[in-house]
């Protein structure tokens, strides 16, 4: 069978290539060609190969699925998360979809809810859908077990893999802690305290390490003489602030390890008639907009740049799908978001 009619058999076709053309070139019926290009199992492998070769030769690509059969790609990726509330996974997904959108790639989102059995179930389901790759997002920014060797590339985001051979993208929590304290110092604050969350979280320790290092660089002592570790909650923010003010009433700034904690800090400062930011400046961490923007006053905070992390994860996954597989841990710098809870000291 020849190429579709045109002015010369050696010239490109002068009309759109159709499924009929592919069927004729492959020597099969139109129905068989359609089944072959749509991946239906009743078509013999040798017949499918003839149809795909014919479609490739004629540059026939009526839809993404047909392209996938020719390129061996499905145009889909999986995003597997254990973040129940979506606080971290949703911004990462939004960033990833921004990057994938220009390439017409669809994203399947699966929530494992912190359950290893559920995670394995979702993993099998995603692989059965022939996804081209996976982005794995953990519920907390600490190392998680690697998924091991899989038939598709995997990028770990927010929670790094415990295998250095995997590629992980994480937020710079040490840099974020330093950035928060630097902002307070630049506003003339010298009695800076730090109230944060669970000490078993690497992020809590890293943010504290960054804060303490910046204070040391400036020759300043930590107000309250300790890092106040506790729960990631407003209740802990309130309780810790009361204890802090009893121990050191001279405090003029508080760096809270999360926006939830910062909301509790603000509650007690209001109760004690300590003006924010005139008397005490407050800065949080996470830029959880529903909390930070609606605080009284609106809360300055450190944004983990999760949408950017998602975009970079998508870009790294594209590269891995193309054969450029990376490894190790890549750190994404956070951003300072300035609102009304911080201001220069009067």
Automatic annotation (TrEMBL):
One protein family per Pfam: LacI
Alphabetical UniProt keywords: DNA-binding, Transcription, Transcription regulation
Limits of the HTH lacI-type domain: 17-71
One GO MF term attached to the UniProt entry: transcription cis-regulatory region binding
SUPFAM superfamilies from the UniProt entry: lambda repressor-like DNA-binding domains, Periplasmic binding protein-like I
Signal peptide stretch: none
Record has Transcription regulation as a keyword: yes
InterPro entries (UniProt xref): HTH_LacI, LacI/GalR-like_sensor, Lambda_DNA-bd_dom_sf, Peripla_BP_I
Protein name per Swiss-Prot or TrEMBL: LacI family transcriptional regulator
Organism from which the protein derives: Paractinoplanes atraurantiacus
Lineage: Bacteria, Bacillati, Actinomycetota, Actinomycetes, Micromonosporales
């Amino acid at each position: 069978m020849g190429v579709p009619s045109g002015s010369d058999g050696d010239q490109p076709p002068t009309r759109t290539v159709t499924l009929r053309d592919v069927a004729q070139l492959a020597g099969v019926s139109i129905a068989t060609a359609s089944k072959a290009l749509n991946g239906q199992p009743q078509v013999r492998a040798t017949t499918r190969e003839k149809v795909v070769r014919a479609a490739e030769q004629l540059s026939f690509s009526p839809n993404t699925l047909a392209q996938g059969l020719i390129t061996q790609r499905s145009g889909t990726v999986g995003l597997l998360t254990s973040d129940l509330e979506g606080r971290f996974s949703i911004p990462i997904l939004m960033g990833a979809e921004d990057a994938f959108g220009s390439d017409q790639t669809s994203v399947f989102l699966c929530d494992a809810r912190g359950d290893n059995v559920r995670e394995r179930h979702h993993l099998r389901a995603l692989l059965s859908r022939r996804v081209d790759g996976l982005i794995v997002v953990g519920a907390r920014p600490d190392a998680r077990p690697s998924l091991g060797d899989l038939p598709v590339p995997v990028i770990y985001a927010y929670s790094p893999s415990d295998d250095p051979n995997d590629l992980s993208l994480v937020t710079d929590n040490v840099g974020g802690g330093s950035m928060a304290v630097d902002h307070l110092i630049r506003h003339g604050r010298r009695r800076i305290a730090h109230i944060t969350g669970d000490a078993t979280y690497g992020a809590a320790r890293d943010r504290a390490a960054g804060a303490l290092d910046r204070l040391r660089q400036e020759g300043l002592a930590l107000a309250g003489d300790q890092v106040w570790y506790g729960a990631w909650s407003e209740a802990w923010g309130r309780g810790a602030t009361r204890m802090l003010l009893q121990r050191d009433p001279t405090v003029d700034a508080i760096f809270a390890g999360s926006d939830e904690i910062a909301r509790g800090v603000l509650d007690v400062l209001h109760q004690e008639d300590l003006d924010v930011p005139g008397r005490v400046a407050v800065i949080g961490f996470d830029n959880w907009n529903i909390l930070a923007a609606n605080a009284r006053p609106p809360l300055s905070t450190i944004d983990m740049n999760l949408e950017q992390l998602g975009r970079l994860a998508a870009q790294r996954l594209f590269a891995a799908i193309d054969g450029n597989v990376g490894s190790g841990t890549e750190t994404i710098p956070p951003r300072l978001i300035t609102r009304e809870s911080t201001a220069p000291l009067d």
